[in-house]
Inverse folding.
């Protein structure tokens, strides 16, 4: 027998992709209703209308489905942040937009039980490195126009940003999240020096 026609292969792959997406979506609907630790494969099979034997051909257990969902979310968020990086405008404004968006993502999508299950593995490491590189690129651009302090490298400042912004997950409101971003940005300005008093800054400030 010859090889399967390309169109046939593409049709099969599309079907498999659609089934996977349906399983993931149904699982997350159950997670929203019952919590990630209470969902079972039987519940997922019932909600999707897929037999358990078929379900296990796609995913070994509930955790594997949650990881697939998380990977999908990470890819979507990285794409969104990358688009913000390349929008028109000065680098500092784009940096602010990226940090605010990332902080709100952390705040709005944080579930401790779910995070304990999915925040690990190679995908997270790759996403973290990619986001660090995006932020470091913006900081390098902003530094060229004098908007960023020069006593710390852009790559080190990017790591500082990401670690600072992770605190957004535990903040009580969006207003608090935006204040966190403001503080994070302030720490990267050229006029920010640890231990320097306000009076000293005023004495050394150039006349307008």
């Amino acid at each position: 027998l010859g090889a399967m026609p390309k169109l046939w292969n593409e049709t099969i792959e599309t079907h498999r992709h659609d089934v996977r997406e349906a399983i993931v979506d149904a699982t997350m609907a159950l997670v929203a209703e019952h919590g990630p630790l209470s969902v079972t494969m039987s519940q997922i099979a019932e909600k999707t209308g897929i037999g358990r034997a078929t379900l296990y051909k796609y995913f070994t257990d509930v955790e594997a489905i949650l990881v697939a969902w998380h990977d999908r979310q990470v890819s979507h968020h990285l794409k969104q942040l990358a688009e913000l990086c390349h929008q028109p405008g000065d680098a500092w404004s784009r940096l602010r937009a990226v940090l605010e968006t990332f902080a709100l993502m952390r705040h709005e999508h944080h579930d401790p039980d779910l995070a304990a299950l999915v925040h690990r593995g190679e995908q997270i490491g790759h996403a973290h490195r990619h986001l660090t590189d995006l932020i470091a690129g913006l900081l390098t651009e902003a530094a060229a126009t004098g908007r960023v302090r020069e006593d710390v490298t852009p790559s080190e400042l990017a790591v500082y940003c990401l670690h600072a912004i992770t605190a957004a997950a535990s903040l009580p409101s969006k207003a608090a999240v935006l204040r966190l971003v403001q503080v994070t940005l302030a720490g990267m300005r050229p006029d920010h020096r640890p231990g320097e008093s306000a009076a000293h800054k005023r004495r050394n400030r150039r006349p307008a």
The CA atoms of residues 67 and 118 lie 5 Å apart. The first helix runs from residue 6 to 34. The chain has ten helices and no strands. The chain has a mean pLDDT of 85.
